[in-house]
Amino acid sequence: MGTGIPWRDMPEQYGPWGRAYDLFRRWQRNGAWSLTSHVAAVTADLLHR
């Protein structure tokens, strides 16, 4: 079982799916994705207090 959509089904407005996937993988490797996820979670917590 998975979540989300296949990269190839991403809306065209975001550009070529391969480019988006490459950026996502780069952000995973350098820690930017983890930091972004953490900031989003903390922000959501603060807004719902």
Structural notes for this entry:
- The chain is an all-alpha fold.
- Helices cover 61% and strands 0% of the residues.
- The chain has two helices and no strands.
- It is extended.
- 0% of the residues are buried.
Which features does this protein show?
61% helix, 49 residues, 2 helices, extended, mainly alpha
Quickly describe the structure:
The protein is mainly α and 49 residues long. The protein is 61% helix and 0% strand.
Which sequence of SSEs, written as H and E, runs from N to C?
Answer: HH
Q: What's the rounded overall pLDDT mean?
A: 91
Proportion of residues in helical segments? 55-70%
| Assembly status | single chain
Which value, in Å, is the CA radius of gyration? 14 Å
Number of helices: 2
What topology emerges from the helices and strands here?
Blueprint: H1 17-30, H2 32-47
